[in-house]
Design a protein that fits this description.
Structural class: mainly alpha
Oligomer: single chain
Number of strands: 0
Distance between the termini: 59 Å
Helix content: 40-55%
Strand content: under 5%
Radius of gyration: 24 Å
Shape: flat
Largest sheet: none
Length: 137
């Protein structure tokens, strides 16, 4: 016996439920505090000296994240030498990315994909080129 309702009408409640779950997740997440926020209205003490540094992007605003989240170092130190100890100048350098951008709170999936991409490892590039040029041995 055929179903009296077409598929588009049977799928509507599931789509509505999915949209509701997504909306609730967004509302829940927007109410959470930034997991990196520190003390005294500054996410870290780096901004006391580096207040003139521009935001990297809207989603990486200095006022929200600070510096040490990405650049490591010691965000609570009061002097330059101790503050810069262990600092990473370029946090997107693949040598450091597991400790910076690739942490679980940030971009673990994306950084893993980049680290294992053909453009990073060059694995198979020669073979792929030979295949594309139809010059296999």
């Amino acid at each position: 016996m055929a179903n009296a309702f077409p598929l588009k009408y049977r799928a509507t409640p599931f789509v509505a439920l999915l949209l509701l779950i997504i909306a609730l997740a967004v509302l829940y997440r927007s109410g959470q505090k930034n997991p990196f926020t520190a003390k005294e209205d500054l996410p870290d003490q780096c901004l006391a000296c580096h207040s003139d540094v521009n935001d990297m992007s809207g989603s990486h605003a200095n006022e929200a994240l600070g510096c040490a989240v990405c650049h490591l170092g010691n965000p609570d130190a009061a002097d330059e030498k101790n503050a810069h100890a262990g600092m990473v100048r370029n946090p997107s350098d693949l040598h450091w990315v597991k400790n910076t951008c690739g942490r679980s709170q940030c971009h673990p999936v994306l950084s893993h994909a980049v680290q294992n991409s053909i453009m990073t490892s060059n694995a198979g590039i020669v073979a792929s080129t030979l295949y594309q040029w139809d010059e296999r041995a």
